[in-house]
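In response to a reviewer's request, we include the raw inputs and outputs for one of the modeled complexes. The two entities were modeled together in a single run.
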Amino acid sequence: MGVGHSSVSLSLDPISIAAFTAKPKPKTSCFVNTHCRRSVFPTKRVSLFVDFSLKFESLKCGTVAGEMDTEKGIDVANKSILDFHDIDERLIRKMEFDALVWSSLHGLVVGDRNFQRSGQVPGVGMVHAPIALLPMSFPKSHWKQACELAPIFNELIDRISLDGKFLQDSLSRTKKVDAFTSRLLDIHSKMLEMNKKEEIRLGLHRSDYMLDEETKLFLQIELNTISSSFPGLGCLVTELHRTLLNEYGEDLGLDSKKIPSNTAVGQFSEALAKAWTEYNNPRAVVLVVVQTEERNMYDQHWLCTMLKERHNVRTVRKTLAEIDREGQLLPDGTLLVDGQAIAVVYFRAGYAPTDYPSESEWRSRLLMEQSSAIKCPSISYHLAGSKKIQQELAKPNILERFLENKEDIVKLQKCFAGLWSLDDLDIIRKAIDKPELFVMKPQREGGGNNIYGNDVKETLLRLQKEGSEEDAAYILMQRIFPTVSPTILMRDGICHKEHAISELGIYSAYLRNKEKVIMNDQCGYLMRTKIASSNEGGVAAGFAVLDSIYLT
Amino acid sequence: MGVGHSSVSLSLDPISIAAFTAKPKPKTSCFVNTHCRRSVFPTKRVSLFVDFSLKFESLKCGTVAGEMDTEKGIDVANKSILDFHDIDERLIRKMEFDALVWSSLHGLVVGDRNFQRSGQVPGVGMVHAPIALLPMSFPKSHWKQACELAPIFNELIDRISLDGKFLQDSLSRTKKVDAFTSRLLDIHSKMLEMNKKEEIRLGLHRSDYMLDEETKLFLQIELNTISSSFPGLGCLVTELHRTLLNEYGEDLGLDSKKIPSNTAVGQFSEALAKAWTEYNNPRAVVLVVVQTEERNMYDQHWLCTMLKERHNVRTVRKTLAEIDREGQLLPDGTLLVDGQAIAVVYFRAGYAPTDYPSESEWRSRLLMEQSSAIKCPSISYHLAGSKKIQQELAKPNILERFLENKEDIVKLQKCFAGLWSLDDLDIIRKAIDKPELFVMKPQREGGGNNIYGNDVKETLLRLQKEGSEEDAAYILMQRIFPTVSPTILMRDGICHKEHAISELGIYSAYLRNKEKVIMNDQCGYLMRTKIASSNEGGVAAGFAVLDSIYLT
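The model returned the following structure tokens for the whole complex.
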């Protein structure tokens, strides 16, 4: 998804930085005991959260009880092996300089928010992408777990997308209170009425996870089925960190080989190329649906460049409004935009209500959906990635509706955080009693809208009093308390030593043509790291950067 | 040399754009007859210039008489095969977008003059380098000629550098009126007194040429022996133009294979690495002497990155003032900067008077010169590249003092423009009579100081009247009238259709250790193209861009 959409957004504009679902440990309780160049976690733990959340999980979310014991074994490996704040200042200066130079020469750049045309014209107002100077420690076992989940989620989304009734029913209450979801569902209904079949289905997803420090559980934050951002820049950050460790690894006691390779952009371009091939019109192109302003355009350009250079597939970039003006459907279902046949529609816009300022954009979305072009995503894939569906899937016996393999189901359930709808009175009571253990997430996309702490209590009390249907616009999620680590973040050419929390995104690609699954792969990763300092509400006060992982 | 130094400077700041030695044909007389998608040169020619300048050349500069006849054969090949202004607008828009994206992703960038920190910190305030959208047509025969000249000039500079008396004598009058040359000569004198020998000598030169439209002669503008800029970005422009022709060549009727490959940055890094190896101290590094602000830093970073990645040789960047503070000489001659032994000093600063704002910078230069580090360039190489020496070499029988091979001498003389000192009364009279056929060049470096047109006449008359020694600060050069071609230039993300003139720079590297010549190679090229519109004085009113060549 685009900047500002995911839970750890990488917008350069602080105003649009989305809130984490997670609340970082308060700074004061961390790193009280840093010795041996290792960050040491606080030894006193508030056990309440663990018991409380786990009980809910086993009761409501199908999480396998007792997994805490097995997870505990990871405890040691999870510690970062080096406190980056202890690194010699001269060495930091050298690495900082090298990182800035490397980023500039290798296209690890974004549009500068201070430069007016930087979101419209490529090549002007560029600044290095906000980055972590060094990779974040991450347990190998959870990395493996995340990679294994990727093809299962791919398959799950595909199955859900075929169950039109499930999507419509699950979102029926949301539809009444959320205009955006309602419009998406309208398009979906039209397709059901038309009995429109998507024979070639392409998914380019990113599943985002956090590691809960208390429970050592590795929990899914959300699954992005539209506009999964940063496959391009994410790969570059991995490459940058490897380059730095090749040069300075000895001084740091770090081995570049422990950074897993990242092939996100290569595999995404391969998936798009294979989809293009399946469409089987050599003259057709890939349509990239873009926002009118996009400071993260270089991430998209990397993907398109690879698609051209490796697979000789051309792309055209158009906004929803342009597609409304220039698009037409031929009687055989072919989508033409500006006279050009479209094989694949790749959305890097259209995921947020703000992407549809007028009827023009909705017409455009409908036109594309009606066409025979491969949609990445189709309206069904898009809806299957919504928060409400995520919450529905966490209910007992729902996964079984879509998947046969029991082991796969167990694997998925293991990564589900506690998720509840607001018609669960038992949970509402608990959330009013202990609001600090919950996050209220509105259905509508775009980060920054989550509700934390005492606001959870107040919002729930208000909804109870009003007795309106507005509660359907929210879900409740277990609040995750991720590990806080000392990091060095870089933005606007300036280095910041901060304590930060991280979220791991695993990319995956799925392509099938009728019964033939052509691709079902995990495709690299994206670590996002964000300053842990937070205000009372838990909303991010700092900024997020692109990061990679160092397996421990 | 750095931005602003050479005759076609690539500064982004219009104020520092240097004047060409050449005067473009007035726009009105060009392209009156463009048909068959070819630019057609004006058919009426002012024959005066040809006769006049050739007579001078054969009289004064050792240019072989009668070469006009052989040169005339090139006439047809010299025409650009396509009038770029005729290209379909939609195709231009596509290429423009692709060029901007390619530049951003591949590090073809400079610091934006509108962004305050862009010359100090890498990674901030970046903008694509000013570029020509498509390569400039250039005759294959002259390209071959230029390549052949490279090793001869390398050898010549090396021989001159060993003739301390020639340098001192030739520059003795200049010394009296030019403070900068005087300081350089002082250092040179000290080295002569010390009997300092440079056993390992490294030259990274760029010889700049223009093609005179009237005579079809390919004439040297200057030879840069210090700080030859753009080996990095120049290679990228070549790569960009090949990429564009691979994609759009068929539409344009152009073949990407006709753009000669450009290995400047690779060969320069190889030369630096080989010099480092000759110095034979594995712990020593290459010192890059830089200006305090450098918007062209990415060109330098490319060279240093290649040096590290291909040859594992590290660089440190320091200003002259920093070297004064942090530098020291060990008794064995080793240069230490900030405690770090220096194998090679590579100057990307120190070529202009403004680089020495205080005695600190001069102390720094002297310190480095006294050391055993390999200087690129040594003070002798630096002086050997001065305009006065260029003019001296154009005198009859001077080349013979340095070179034995008659064929080499003929080749060099063939590219010498008419060059005269101001003690030649005959020429002074002619220049006062026809000032439009001459350029007055001051000895001091940094572009923008040349005198054109009626100013030549007035300056000469004033100097005659005053009878001072100031005339020694200038040389007179034949004015070159280059071909004006329709081009598409890009700056700040904006495309400009302009008529432009071009200057070809040929890079070359020379490395010897005592009697052993380790490297003597031509190393790629740089085409610079500049808007032809000019004011009465001939000073550039437009801007210059990086370009490549298309052999015809």
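As requested, we also summarize the result in words. Chain A has 18 helices and 20 strands. Chain A has two domains: 89-417+480-551, 419-479.
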